[in-house]
Known about the structure:
The chain is α+β, with helices and mostly antiparallel strands and 194 residues long. It has 3 helices and 14 strands.
Amino acid sequence: MVSPAPSLPKDLSQLSLAEAAELLAARKLPPVESWHPERAGDSAMEIRADGSWYHEGGRINRPAMVKLFSTILRREPDGGHVLVTPAEKLTIAVEDTPFRAVEMKSEGEGAARKLVFRLDTDDLVIAGADHPLTFGPDPDDPDPRLHVRGAVGNGLEARIDRALYYELVDMALGEDDGHPAIWSNGARFPLVAA
């Protein structure tokens, strides 16, 4: 059973990092990684690059439905995405990433910084070793992402919105030691791959 996501303030800046961590600890997601049903099929659903969800070509306009479906989303070892329950596993097309990081709060500086992101599903993720930030191999064509859940390297990710990416770059350059990077929750994330 999925516990409903706690209500979040409209503005993430009203939430302290301790309060964000408390909300994260209270959220229980279904154990989709342990579900391996025999019945499989196609959900006729897709998540477009802008983060909008569609079913049979029609946009899903109810945020509560999107939030519910997002809790049973899993990325498969082959890179595909599925909606999974104990009874069935249905493929879902994902154009880019299944989530978008749409708001960010930073507390602290340098190695003591902690970054919390709000996703387009209202979920919160604190960037760190378990939820790394990546920026892609080409500094001229950045690909900013945040690992959300599942296996690092083949899990679910959020595209970091452009405005947030520029905030991250600004923070990293403000603390530049010759190798621009951003810190969060004790982990260092280079803006440019070495």
